[in-house]
What does this fold into?
Amino acid sequence: MGSLTLLTSVGLLAACGEGEEGDQSISEELDHSIIGIEPGAGIMDQAADLLEDYDNLEGWTVEESSTAGMVGELGNAIQNEEPVAVIGWIPHWKFIDYDLKFLEDPEGTFGDEEDIHTFTRQGFEEDNPGAFAILDAFHWEPDDLQEVMLYAMENQDDYDLAAEQWVEENPDLVDEWTQDAEPANGETVELVTTMWEDGLSSTAVMQHVLEQEGYEVSVTEVDPTIVFQAIANGEADATTVPWLPSTHGAFLEEYGDDMVDLGVNMTGTQNGLVVPEYMDIDSIEDLEPAE
Ligand code: PBE
It folds into this structure.
């Protein structure tokens, strides 16, 4: 897992958020703007809360963009060693490619380290005990997820290939998931995922493992809220992507009563405001309001 760069201690200059040259503050250099991602992402609800939680972000904006757009602007800024602030999360390959850090979040807007959960629709265990047992046993580490993400990146985002490679290399862990499962007899399993690398990776691995066990698997990519809706109303069977308790907490509140939570499949995700290591700032509260 890309090491989350520890926040370095910074000099007095940075504490008052002064830019390198001293004539423009870091906030002015950032044009009081944070680059966001797709509006449907749970992290974007947290970004909206950010502007409420921090008085010193008075007059700031969070740009709605796309994950690709955000990563593109981040890469361009880093290439020219310019100031940039993005909505970011781990695990994500950007922390491997670039030297980044989370700004401290004393108001706790982005929550603490989170978990990724597995859910099924109600009745799935009775309908498909074998697949339910595999989904229930599914658990891995951030390093495992990171490996699948990297394999996909190395193969033009081919998550099927990445999953196949990872499953081949991790027979013992996969056996732990499948050893107690009744054999399949061609039942189908409908998975739903979000469009982000973490969801695509865990879903591709689960699809590959279920197919190896004889299930017919379909995967649908939807917005986070639809992931919850589809499981709650029985349109989909299972998902391995929800981030809780913070990122997708609002969706769980709305749909959770009609879903079966199989618990945590991975611990160690984190959302936050992310800047390149070269920026002399270490906390959100060091940013200054737009005049
Ligand atoms: N993310 C990555 C998603 C979940 C996975 C943090 C961008 C979100 O905010 O919904």
